[in-house]
Amino acid sequence: MNYKIALLPGDGIGPEIVAQAVKVLHAAGKKFGHRFEFTEGLVGAAAIDAVGDPFPDETLRLCMDSDAVLFGAIGDPRFDNDPKAKVRPEQGLLAMRKKLGLYANIRPVSTFQSLIHKSPLRPDLVEGADFVVVRELTGGIYFGEPSGRSEDGEKAYDTSIYTREEIRRIARLGFEYAARRDKRLTLVDKANVLATSRLWRETVQAMEAEYPGIAVDYMFVDNAAMQIIQWPKKFDVMVTENMFGDILSDEASVITGSLGLLPSASVGIHTSVFEPIHGSYPQAAGKDIANPLATVLSAAMLLDIALKLTEEARAVRDVVNRSMEAGIVTEDITEGKAYRTSEVGEWLAANI
Ligand code: IPM
Ligand code: MG
């Protein structure tokens, strides 16, 4: 089969890590008899510099016309340190999520046997941890209006808004994931303080009857932040709103030992987007040292979820595991010889 894949490398280390995933996808295509046609689009600071818009219409059209999107990273220190910047690279990512209707972000967290020792947590706590964060991605405080500054600049505000239907559609996905896994779902909210969280809780409580096989529990986000670290094996599927999911998924990455290992899938109405959960790591940009595995594992999710190529996806995950066992990894996850980003990509492509 022929598949069209949009590549949005973005900023910082984005281009180098996406390039490795492309090598692996080409190799997988060759092995299994598929052709992947890649087309690059602009996003983020790179797009602001080129055309003044962090998510140009042309990029939107490219995404809409593709079978899947592989995304690198977004963010640039030039903008981070300028709170007054009129246009920000991150707006490109948010516009992409909104315009493609990507209301669900799936972030699986699991450990790799050969890396257990890299986790700052005790091995007996993290070994076997395996859960999925299902993060709402197009609502809440990231998008609520009004948001801005008072005229005198002395006051700023953001608004968190959720409708019952927005909560239902993401919760449904969480229940479906739980049904295919260990049949446990945790709703993370702040219902003791926030009105939106109380609507989340009420909505999910009302859905419990539709999914009798799933055990549901409810946890305040502060408590969840503690339990992820103290008892990560307790979780199976965690469903939560946009900002809580953003924060908890970075926290969860310490369980695996490196932020460079966590892939994600954003799904919803139009073309799905696959991206590592980490940022643009500007200090490493162009140095060929960044860990490409989160992006390669995102490509595996792309094969699995967008193209329904499960065997191909398994082959990608398998070669990633073997690279770790063989120690063909970047500096962030080894005490021994560190390989370059491009060398890891080449090894994966040659050994799939
Ligand atoms: C993420 C990132 C983004 C987010 C940023 C870059 C806007 O942190 O995908 O988790 O907050 O959603
Ligand atoms: Mg984040």
What would you say this structure looks like, in words?
- With 352 residues, the chain is of the alpha/beta class.
- It folds into two domains: 1-102 and 270-352, Isopropylmalate Dehydrogenase, CATH 3.40.718.10; 120-256, Isopropylmalate Dehydrogenase, CATH 3.40.718.10.
- Helix content is 42%, strand content 20%.
- The strands form two sheets. The chain has a ten-stranded mixed beta sheet with strand order 2-1-3-12-11-4-5-10-8-9, sandwiched between helices.
- α1 (14-32) packs parallel to α13 (341-351).
- It is globular and about 50 Å long.
- The model has no long low-confidence stretch (mean pLDDT 96).
- Bound molecules: 3-isopropylmalic acid and magnesium ion.
- Magnesium ion binds at residues 246, 250.
Kindly list the characteristics that best describe this protein.
single chain, 352 residues, alpha/beta, 2 domains, 10-stranded mixed β-sheet, two-stranded antiparallel ribbon, 42% helix, binds 3-isopropylmalic acid, binds magnesium ion
Using only C-alpha atoms, the radius of gyration works out to 20 Å
What's the CATH topology label of the largest domain?
Answer: Isopropylmalate Dehydrogenase
Distinct ligand kinds? 3-isopropylmalic acid, magnesium ion
| Main sheet record | 10 strands, mixed
CATH domain class of the largest domain: Alpha Beta
Give the CATH superfamily of the largest domain. Isopropylmalate Dehydrogenase
- The secondary-structure element order is EHEHHEHHEHEEEHEHEHEHEEHHH
Instruction: Tell me the span between the first and last alpha carbons.
Output: 19 Å
Shape: globular
Tally of individual helices: 13
Mean pLDDT: 96
Percent of residues in helices comes to: 40-55%
Overall strand count: 12
The second-level CATH architecture of the largest domain is: 3-Layer(aba) Sandwich
Q: Describe the strand arrangement of the main beta sheet, using strand numbers.
A: 2-1-3-12-11-4-5-10-8-9
Structural class: alpha/beta
How many domains? The number is 2
How much β-strand is present in the residues? 15-25%
